[in-house]
Design goal:
- The chain has 21 helices and two strands.
- The chain has helices at about 1-10, 20-40, 45-50, 55-85, 95-130, 140-155, 185-215, 225-260, 270-305, 315-325, 340-355, 355-370, 380-400, 405-410, 415-445, 450-475, 495-525, 560-575, 595-610, 615-635, 645-655, and strands spanning about 585-590, 640.
- The chain has a two-stranded antiparallel ribbon.
- Helix 5 runs parallel beside helix 7 and helix 13 runs antiparallel to helix 15.
- The termini are far apart.
- The model has no long low-confidence stretch (mean pLDDT about 95).
């Protein structure tokens, strides 16, 4: 009996690597500490009522952001481990198998479990406020989307301490990801973790499109929406068409592994190239899914801190919509070298170059907005300005990669790695950092410390260029991606050492950001205006943080920057025009629900059961999912009204005694 338990434990838990053992111990200690703190301070009921069962879009957004910061730490540690391994020739810091696992999980975590939740967090917190809505269209579905993402991410992340991480690359090309070459459970964790969270992402895309189309404030036509809302809309259009492709592709890969199907098995009549086409039909639009909202953030910040209306509003809108369409016609540039043929390569080279045109137009619009503006160099504006040269370089190297003959030199080299990180860190990460700094006061009622923020900014930016500029030259010198070591005679050692130093500088920048948040929580000065940046859009017209109902009175919109225009009218009247006393009415709001949390937890056990081929776990959990759906179908008492007297008290408290 004891032998069987030991045999099971050796298969179930990852053993033999001191780094993973340290992670296992750290996770156990952290879990015990969390349970102790919640029990000691008697916060279990508070946690359940206020967070785990909430359907408030603002709290859901904050939970997305917290998860994203944690995943940035996890993915960043993976990156530093890889850089340590590559810092010097013939290093033995990581075994090749462990290195493969790390670069696989690093890619998945940074794209799907860091960038996506940070994006969804800002969607949730800000977009409904920008359009004057009191909630999203489907609050219950919004909560379900978050918890599906959360439990999918957890399912993926437990693989490095239980069962073993996937090691077939972040896009899991067959035959490497097939059962023959990846016989362990790591690839199953990959499939089910992404599958569960991906369904949540698809539901979010549907939810926000409906919210934008049906819940805008009176007077807010489509061409009066803030630019960030347009970026959300464009991103969600891509989501609803791209994520079903991912869902089907991973389902087919799982059938190959689980039931012995041969969709992608060449020996069985399948075709691995079909998988590569399908995964990139999702994978390249995914890049635009995460970059478009960053463009919207930059547009809001540039206008606010230049004290000017955004230059070329209509052209910006059309550029975003054009990008959302063209994003589905560029995927083959990821495999120009795989024998698609000259005609196919020419078509996708042209579309790849064409998509740079609307992107470039946006950069010029931001520059023209700043031209002769009264620029204020706050941390959000600094991240925005830093983005422009970084993204221009990334875009130029992207155009180089789009030239099919040249791509035979660049393909699978570190030149590609440098380009990829140039646009995703310099565009996506810089953009979401800017948005986080910009809207932090709206979420929590205080600004982040500017001094520490600028230290973090410079460490991130200097570290970024030190890390990735050498990789362009390494790629041109023949260093290919996915290698875990190299010989002295290759001559790559000095540039790799410089790149590693840059990676650690970015890590120190992240530490400064965490310090900045902790310091600001303890020593912050509360914002009592609701508008600390002198903003232009509706979210700045209400108190910070926003009340549960967002707007006590639904606003009526007349201009693109309606809040800015309202402030200008008030300033012009010089107080001679008395503001009418608001007339409150009861506000209809959704009730909290435990079903999204419970249902998503059951999906975790469904996935875990299929990972280990434990039908005794997967089938009951699936039945539980069905019961949750049935319970939701018979839930009729799922809303309530906030009465006028409560609204008056809340507004008076938030506005310093002035209702």
């Amino acid at each position: 009996m004891l032998d069987k338990i030991q045999e099971f434990a050796s298969e179930f838990f990852v053993t033999g690597d001191p780094l993973i053992l340290g992670a296992q111990v750290s996770i156990a200690i952290a879990m015990v500490a969390i349970v102790f703190v919640l029990t000691y301070f008697r916060k279990w009921v508070w946690l359940w009522r206020e967070w785990l069962t909430t359907v408030d879009h603002k709290r859901i957004g904050i939970m997305y952001i917290i998860c994203s910061i944690l995943m940035l730490f996890r993915g960043g540690v993976d990156a530093l481990l890889m850089r340590l391994q590559l810092a010097v020739p013939n290093a033995e810091f990581l075994h090749p198998e462990h290195y493969n696992q790390i670069f696989t999980t690093h890619g998945v975590i940074m794209i799907l479990f860091m960038a996506m939740p940070l994006m969804f967090g800002l969607f949730n917190v800000i977009m409904p406020l920008q359009i004057g809505a009191r909630d999203v269209a489907y609050p219950f579905l919004n909560a379900l989307s978050f918890w599906l993402f959360f439990f999918g991410a957890m399912l993926f992340n437990v693989s490095f301490i239980i069962g073993g991480s996937p090691d077939a690359g972040w896009l899991a090309y067959p035959p490497l990801s097939g059962l023959e070459h990846s016989p362990g459970v790591g690839q199953n964790f990959y499939i089910w973790g992404i599958q569960i969270s991906g369904i949540g992402s698809l539901a979010t895309g549907i939810n926000f499109i409906v919210t934008i189309l049906k819940m805008r404030a009176p007077g807010m036509t489509l061409m009066k929406m803030p630019m960030f809302t347009w970026s959300v809309f464009s991103s969600c259009i891509i989501i609803i068409f791209a994520f079903p492709i991912l869902t089907v592709t991973l389902a087919l890969l799982f059938l190959d592994r689980f039931l012995g199907a041969h969709f992608f098995t060449l020996d069985g009549g399948g075709n691995p190239m079909m998988y590569i086409n399908l995964i990139w039909m999702w994978g390249h639009p995914e890049v635009y899914i995460v970059i478009l909202p960053a463009f919207g953030i930059f547009s809001e910040i540039v206008a606010t801190f230049s004290k000017k209306t955004l230059f070329g509003y209509k052209s910006m809108v059309f550029a975003m919509l054009i990008i959302s369409v063209l994003s589905f016609f560029t995927w083959v540039h990821h495999f120009f070298t795989m024998g698609s043929g000259a005609d196919v390569n020419v078509f996708f080279a042209i579309t790849t170059m064409a998509i740079a045109i609307p992107t470039g137009a946006k950069v010029f619009n931001w520059l023209f907005t700043m031209y002769r503006g009264r620029i204020k160099f706050t941390t959000p504006m600094m991240w925005t300005i830093a983005f422009i040269p970084c993204f221009v370089v990334g875009g130029m190297t992207g155009v180089l990669l789009s030239v099919a003959p040249a791509d035979f030199q660049f393909h699978n080299s570190y030149f590609l790695i440098a380009h990829f990180h140039q646009v995703l860190i310099g565009g996506v990460a810089f953009g979401y950092f800017a948005g986080l700094y910009y809207w932090w006061p709206k979420m929590f009622g205080f600004k982040l410390n500017e001094h520490l923020g600028k230290w973090a900014f410079w460490l991130w930016n200097i570290g970024f260029y030190v890390c990735f500029m050498p990789q362009y030259f390494l790629g041109l010198d023949g260093m290919t991606r996915r290698i875990s070591t190299y010989d002295f005679d290759m001559g790559w050692g000095p540039l790799n050492m410089v790149s590693t130093v840059g990676g650690f500088l970015m890590g120190i920048g992240f530490i400064f950001q965490v310090w900045q948040i902790a310091y600001s929580i303890k020593y912050h000065e509360k914002d009592v205006t609701g508008d600390p940046w002198d903003g232009r859009t509706l979210e700045w017209s209400i108190p910070s943080p926003a009340p549960v109902y967002n707007f006590a009175v639904t606003p009526h919109v007349e201009h693109v920057d309606d809040w800015w225009e309202t402030k200008q009218k008030r300033a012009a009247s010089k107080g001679t025009t008395k503001e009418p006393r608001p007339v409150y009415q009861p506000i209809h709001m959704p009730e909290n629900s435990a079903i999204p949390f419970v249902k998503s937890a059951l999906w975790f056990f469904v996935g875990f059961g299929f990972v280990w081929d434990w039908m005794w776990m997967a089938i009951p959990a699936l039945i539980g999912v069905g019961i949750c759906m049935l319970a939701r179908s018979f839930t009729y008492d799922d809303d309530y009204y906030i009465q006028v007297d409560e609204i008056e008290r809340t507004e008076a408290a938030l506005r310093g005694g002035k209702a």
